[in-house]
Amino acid sequence: MSLRPKTLTSRLVLLLAGMVLLGGAVTVHLPGLGDYRVAISPAQGRDRLLTGIPQTPVNHIIRDLILLEAVVLTTAVAVVAGFGAAAARRSMRPLQDLATVARQVTELPLDTAESRIPLRANEMSEPTEVAQVGQAMNAMLGHIDLALQQRDESERRLREFAADASHELRTPLAVARSHAELLREYMLLTDLPEQVHLSLTRIGEETGRMAGIVDDLLLLARLDDAGSAMQDEVDLTRVVVDAVDDARITSPGHRWSIDVPAEPVVIRADTEQVRRMVTNLVTNVRLHTPVGTTARCELLASASEIVITVHDTGPGFPPELIDHAHDRFARGRHRESSADSTGLGLAIVHAVAHAQGGSMAIVSTPGDTTVMVTLPLAHAT
């Protein structure tokens, strides 16, 4: 690189003179040449030697070093962050497994019979806090599973007791009812007080009601144990028509209507169970709504399912009872009830529908109540 002589300005001349006096080194900017590091050193006699080193290469080196340090530091931070994230994910994986197991447990149908909790969290060998949480969770799931087994066993024994008791009570109740009827016939031939006649009438009515409860309990026990065992061809259209006709006779104060298809709707099911189911749907309206209530029974058959709907304009179900109306002996505190009600009517409807692979639903507000039973098309013929 060739350099042409440059004329120094008066300012630079004064600066260099001051350096001669001070004997120090300064950085100066030479127009057209850039920055120089200039120093004064003694020479022969009274002369002084002025030495200048260009700063541009040094500045480039410093800039490159700063850039290199920035790149190295950024890379180091990224690597450390990556390792830290991987370590955090690895340490959090057991917690994610615990969350997955907990979520799967919440999806299990624990409200059904024979329900179990087979899920367990993965055991970890490291003695960490997360491992302790996993062990505690497994212990808790084990206790819950044991409690469910004990609950199922208790319910099984209760069902067996109800079935056995119902079976054993049927005969003495039938005998008591027969003797009451025999005494009532004997009264027609003798002169007995009117109170005796009333007492015998009450005995006959109450033994009949008890026999109905026993029959209901026995049916529920059989449904719990084996579901719908018999498979007959049942004409649902005929069953619905008969149930409404019977309701018109037993409760003439209600306004009954019916809507069924022109063609018979036939399903494969237990005939007696289906009759009880439909009869209980209609009887539920008759027993729990006041005189003058409008009731409509519909039977619909679509391409995928069969729906039996009973709608009434009565007072409806209390809000707290809707979700539990199919429970056994469930009764609303504020709903009109009859002494003939056993609290098992809708329980039988729900059990028979479930045994047929269907369901029961209730939608109720004051003046607008609908009880709907849905049966899958697989049971139709």
| Poorly predicted spans | 333-337
As for the CATH topology of the domain at 232-379, it is Heat Shock Protein 90
Order of helices and strands: HEEEHHHEHEEHEEHEE
Lateral strand order in the biggest sheet: 5-7-8-10-9
Which sheet architecture does the biggest sheet show? Answer: 5 strands, mixed
Bulk shape: rod-shaped
Number of beta-strand segments: 10
Tally the helices: what do you get? 7
What's the rounded overall pLDDT mean? Answer: 79
Radius of gyration (Å): 47 Å
Strand content: 15-25%
Q: In terms of structural class, how would the helical and strand content be classed?
A: alpha+beta
CATH homologous superfamily assignment of the domain at 232-379:
Histidine kinase-like ATPase, C-terminal domain
Name of the level-1 CATH class of the domain at 232-379: Alpha Beta
The termini sit apart by 106 Å
The proportion of residues forming helix, as a percent range, comes to 40-55%
CATH-derived architecture of the domain at 232-379: 2-Layer Sandwich
